[in-house]
């Protein structure tokens, strides 16, 4: 079995269609792309690049349905702001303005809504963006689960920046800014009330400072950036491999994973590569700028544990492989189905 | 009792906080404005005007939770596109790009999602906008009611345009482009399975062609535009009266209302002024351009029944009155509480 997409077979929407993995991609390819046909959407980046009045803008949106709404390291509000900031930043844009739309279930404590709003305001302040417009809808009890937030964002793409999987080519290397899997495992641990005596927190963070540092260090040698959220590193690398028509070889020994995350994943039989991150960045760069970019990442508070984790090869186009710690090689599939619903 | 806002007293969010009326405004004033404090949001227009890379942009967002999702004249998808197009257009912006985020309940038929996507695509095509980025989240059965859609939009504000309630002054007149209350009454009729033998349809429409015609005809004499959606004409006029510090006198005899809408409203004891519209426009203009603007509206397919319906007066700042058909005058309150939940 390969990671390649199939036509949608399901007649009803399943949780897996929201996984950020293969089923999500199949839903988008089958339902949304044919309807909204346009070259900007078809590029299927996490942000769209458009020209408005002479300015190059990036636009993005995400809904947040995370459960529970408060967790170690953050909450639904902080996630909503950082997630949208990051989708702009990985497109090379400087995030500027956000909108925030709230769907509230009747009965939600006003105090909780206030806490979420304050958390969003703090996250926006830290990221240097402004929340400038919004909307609130209230639905009757039972018609929503507490609170859903949809943020959209606008950023400015400075002249000359061109990032995206179309620029990835054999010989490039891929870096990550730190340990993977923290967000997903923190939520999972909380939701299932595991008590491992662990202190895991979500990694939610605004990455726009880090992306600017990377672009300063790597210049035109920076090919593409992605924040591996739903579907994890596995989904992002598979999307890159397919979009760029290359093979990617991930070196397991180089991928930072916290011991606690590894332990929970092993216990539950899941791959850290499939787990959502909310403050991690994959960066594909030309080999000649790799060490400069790595140094810039390590000099940034959100990149202290940065590492080169993968190389881009000709090989089998569209495939991702893992070089395991014992020296073998296995395919890293596009995550299929839903392992962690409502992780963000 | 006046229509003035009070501090929020409720400890839990109620349906009325999503009504688009007084309770909605109190929630925003109490929870969101203090947290997201910035002058752009504080203007509380349905769109934010910002400068990006030398271009003046309008940004807006709305969530759509309408029930049922399909109705005479439209569906949740068409509503989501037109609603966001209209929020940009009434700010004097030319709508350009939309994002669309879907929160789907597990089990929704894929075919229904496809119908909604196709309807959005058709509405976007008609309005001349492109849907360029999106997101899909799936929540488990019972955690949402079928499908919620959040659209956000970006438009370009041509140089020299300055619209908003700050420009409304005594002596101005207010026009509407056609009969009010159609959308809300169509949904209500359908939801309650009334059978009046009526053929009421939602008025959902993209108003950007009409707003451009109005701005061409009225130039700088066009003070402000609003699409009276949730909370209806009553909420929009009260917001204008308060924001501009003026009194508004609505002439009941001049307000177009279909006989069927009037009949349903009388039966249910609701005011057509409080009912949501999805293709209506209120325009405040200087008296000297009123006839030119009226003629331009009537020449447009969405303005054939346009009328001058109100005048702006010094009087009692922040108040709206209705001159009734029998010659009396009564206050038109800011709608309080929720009459028609999930109308959009």
Q: Could you walk me through the main structural features you see in this protein, from its secondary elements to its overall organization?
A:
The structure is a homodimer. By secondary structure, chain A is α+β, with helices and mostly antiparallel strands. Chain A has two domains: about 45-155, PurM-like, N-terminal domain (60s Ribosomal Protein L30, Chain: A); about 165-330, Phosphoribosyl-aminoimidazole Synthetase, Chain A, domain 2. Chain A contains nine helices and 14 strands. The first copy, chain A, has helices at about 20-35, 40, 75-90, 110-125, 180-190, 210-220, 230-245, 260-270, 290-300; strands spanning about 50, 55-65, 70, 75, 95-105, 130-140, 145-155, 175, 220-225, 245-250, 280-285, 305-315, 320-325, 330. A seven-stranded mixed beta sheet of chain A has the order 9-11-8-12-10-13-14. Chain A has a five-stranded mixed beta sheet with strand order 1-2-7-5-6, covered by helices on one side. In chain A, strands 3-4 form a two-stranded antiparallel ribbon. In chain A, a hairpin with a 2-residue loop joins strand 3 (about 70) and strand 4 (about 75). In chain A, helix 3 (about 75-90) runs parallel beside helix 4 and helix 6 runs antiparallel to helix 9 (about 290-300). The first copy, chain A, is globular. The mean pLDDT of chain A is about 95. At the A-B interface, helix 1, strand 1, strand 2, strand 5 and helix 4 of A face helix 1, strand 1, strand 2, strand 5 and helix 4 of B.
Largest interface: A-B, 86 and 86 residues
CATH architecture type of the largest domain in chain A: Alpha-Beta Complex
CATH topology-level fold name of the largest domain in chain A: Phosphoribosyl-aminoimidazole Synthetase, Chain A, domain 2
**Quaternary structure annotation:** homodimer
Indicate the percent of residues in helices of chain A. Answer: 25-40%
CATH superfamily of the largest domain in chain A: PurM-like C-terminal domain
Secondary-structure element order of chain A, N to C: HHEEEEHEHEEEHHEHEHEHEEE
């Amino acid at each position: 079995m390969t990671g390649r997409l199939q036509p949608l077979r399901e007649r009803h929407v399943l949780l897996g269609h929201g996984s950020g993995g293969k089923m999500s991609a199949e839903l988008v390819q089958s339902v949304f792309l044919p309807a909204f046909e346009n070259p900007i959407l078809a590029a299927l980046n996490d942000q769209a690049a458009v020209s408005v009045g002479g300015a190059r803008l990036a636009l993005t949106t995400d809904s947040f349905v995370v459960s529970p709404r408060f967790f170690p390291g953050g909450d639904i509000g902080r996630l909503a702001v950082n997630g949208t900031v990051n989708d702009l930043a990985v497109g090379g844009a400087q995030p500027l303005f956000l909108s925030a739309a709230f769907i509230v279930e009747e009965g939600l404590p006003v105090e909780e809504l206030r806490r979420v709003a304050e958390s969003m305001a703090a996250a926006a302040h830290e990221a240097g963006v402004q929340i400038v417009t919004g909307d609130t809808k209230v639905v009757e009890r039972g018609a929503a689960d507490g609170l859903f937030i949809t943020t959209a964002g606008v950023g400015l793409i400075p002249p000359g920046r061109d990032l995206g999987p179309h620029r990835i080519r054999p010989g490039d290397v891929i870096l990550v800014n730190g340990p993977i899997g923290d967000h997903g495992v923190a939520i999972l641990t909380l939701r299932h009330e595991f008590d491992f005596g662990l202190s895991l927190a979500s990694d939610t963070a605004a990455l726009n400072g880090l992306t600017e540092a990377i672009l300063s260090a790597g210049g035109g040698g920076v090919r593409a950036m992605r924040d591996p959220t739903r579907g994890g590193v596995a989904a992002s690398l598979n999307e890159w491999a397919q979009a760029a028509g290359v093979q990617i070889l991930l070196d397991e020994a180089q991928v930072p994973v916290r011991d606690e995350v590894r332990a929970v994943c092993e216990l539950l039989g899941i791959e850290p590569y499939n787990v959502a991150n909310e403050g991690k960045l994959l960066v594909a760069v030309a080999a000649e700028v790799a060490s400069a970019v790595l140094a810039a990442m390590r000099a940034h508070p959100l990149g202290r544990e940065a590492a080169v984790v993968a190389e881009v090869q000709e090989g089998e186009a569209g495939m991702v492989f893992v070089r395991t710690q014992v020296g073998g090689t296995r395919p890293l599939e596009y995550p299929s189905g839903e392992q962690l619903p409502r992780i963000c």
